[in-house]
């Protein structure tokens, strides 16, 4: 059904997934994604004030940041790499119904949805082929389990650390400043990883629609 949305209308569920399903519109896995973003936000805050970052009384050090960044990098990789392959191979192009940017949106949504969720689609994509059945199944597998490994390792690393008492230099994580920092980090990470792809799909299609061209 998403195939009938306007370009920007289709962009909204796509963004809900690409942000990591940590806002409304996401199902099932928003909590641990939000916690990883919180760890990244306190790390950035620590860099700004020149102090070892802490979250929930645990120091965030090099090991934790490597695991957090691994989590953040896996997500776009399992979406963008197969989507890129799909739009440059004959088998991938064979399943696209609509031409131009809308066809790219169909492919991008399919892999985004397979990675972070399942069930919905831009209905114009004929994914019932050997290529799409195989690649989408692989994306489901990697999107579910590859991302869980660094999250569980991060949780285990923090659980093994001793809790340090708060001090005057501790950055509070229960105030408006931290909320703004966290929202900013989430938006920046999503923009850096997915904006180029979204610009080639829904955004270009919207501009074309405004100029009178439909796909």
The number of distinct β-strands equals: 2
Helices and strands, in order, run as HHEEHHHHHH
| Global Rg | 19 Å
Mean pLDDT: 85
Report the principal-axis shape.
elongated
Structural class: mainly alpha
Read across the widest sheet, the strand sequence of neighbours is: 1-2
Count the DSSP helices.
Answer: 8
Proportion of beta-strand residues: under 5%
How many separate domains make up the residues? 1
- Helical content stands at 55-70%
The separation of the N and C termini measures 16 Å
How are the SSEs placed, and which strands pair?
Elements: H1 7-18, H2 30-49, E1 54-55, E2 58-59, H3 62-86, H4 90-93, H5 100-116, H6 130-145, H7 148-159, H8 176-210
Antiparallel strand pairs: 1-2
Commentary on this structure:
- By secondary structure, the protein is mainly alpha-helical.
- It has one domain (27-210).
- It has eight helices and two strands.
- The chain has helices spanning 7-18, 30-49, 62-86, 90-93, 100-116, 130-145, 148-159, 176-210, and strands at 54-55, 58-59.
- Strands 1-2 form a two-stranded antiparallel sheet.
Keywords for this entry:
single chain, 215 residues, mainly alpha, 8 helices, elongated
